[in-house]
Amino acid sequence: HEAARANDLQQQLIDAQAELSALERRKGELQALRDQIAQLETERAEHNAANEQTEREGKQLRSRLNVLEASETALCPVCHQPLSAERRAALIAEYAEQIEMLRQRYRETEQLSKAAEGQIEQLSERARALESDIKRQESALNQRLGTLQVKLKNAHLAAEQAAQLSAERAALQEQLASEAFAESARQTMSECERQAIALNYDQEWHDALRKELSDLQEGRLQADRLRQALENLPIAQQRMAEKEQQAAHKQARIAELEAQLPALDARIAELIELARQADQRRAERDQKRAIYDALNEERAALKNKLENLEGIRKRAQELTTQISELSEDEKLYQELQQAFGKRGVPAMLIEAAIPELETLTNELLARMTDGRMQLRFETQRSKKSGEGVIETLDILISDELGQRDYALYSGGESFRVNFALRVALSQFLARRAGAQLRTLVIDEGFGSQDAAGRERLVEAINAVQQCFDLILVVTHIEELRDAFPTHIEVRKMPNGGARLTVR
Prior knowledge:
Layout: H1 2-70, H2 85-178, H3 183-198, H4 203-340, H5 345-369, E1 374-382, E2 389-399, E3 402-404, H6 411-432, E4 439-443, H7 451-463, E5 470-474, E6 488-492, E7 498-502
Parallel strand pairs: 4-5
Antiparallel strand pairs: 1-2, 2-3, 6-7
Helix pairs in contact: 1-2, 1-4, 2-4, 5-6, 6-7
């Protein structure tokens, strides 16, 4: 009975240990959940750090874009060189596209971060529920294990005692079966039987004596058993007292351990909480490490930016110096532009040349018209608004009838004015060059004239012939052949050459 009870308790203990192993597997599931949470927290921290870096890059691009959009003649934010309008527009479009790409990447990373945060909340809720269930089951299993272990030990002790008593009973039964007891008495009885036979043995009387002897032997056996039991009684009582004392000690130990169970449960809960806090600290450490790495990257970026700004500052100083030098050059060039502009040296030269040119023209015109016509140059004229004057170069022609517009003169008169002005201008330029204009060449000057115009041109040439040593007229018109005293006739030959004839 005790052995069966011990086997039953042993099976219950095995079942409880199996449940404890299953509980350990659930602890593994809890740790796996915590590892997933830590991994997700690390991913979320990485996503947040990536978004911070994306935001910094976006701000840098936005700053460059603002610089480009603020001025029509902006400098490149990277190489600090002037940009053309096409390159500036392309760079603005490129920056805008990069900013939009960064926005899209920011939104995608933010969605990943929010998804990780949602998974963290779900897994944390599952971890808390699983942790609470594990604590409850672990406490109940530990209590069951303690109780089963005590009961199993007591059952083993009872089984050992039962086995010992069973062995003692078997030994006694074996002695009875083998008649290995009361050896001297049995020998005496045998001797008596022998003598009885020798003395005219009476079977009935002997049977009666045997029966009486048997009764006496049974009583003796009972007496021996009683005596043996009385002798073993103190030992059994002492053994029983020891067992009871051991059981009392064990019961006290059980009570002591059961009293320690709440403290152990609290300690286990504390250790679980410490483990959770350690995981949280680890996640915070990883997050701070990610932030630290991001800050290091930002510091490196700022350092590079500072170096770039230092280069920009030096470049700005160089450009300021160049601008100052170029400003001086610009002033000089402006002065030169003004000096060589239409109101500068050319205007002064024209002002100085106009009187002489006007005199030469009027001298020639007087010879050709017998003093009837003359002209005058006007370099300034009042504005139509009446406020101030403007620079101009008007030719005013007059004759005995007074001053008239150029278009109101006849063809011959306007031709003489044009001819006199051209010849006078040639003489003026020759004098300014330090030479004398002694030869006048008129190349095909009659082709556009009618007969009257050709006659007036011949008259004009004859009127100014005293001013030149040689007047050379080139023409293909046959009517003018006899208008001048000397002819140089050029004829082409059939063989491709030419022949000159002077008359």
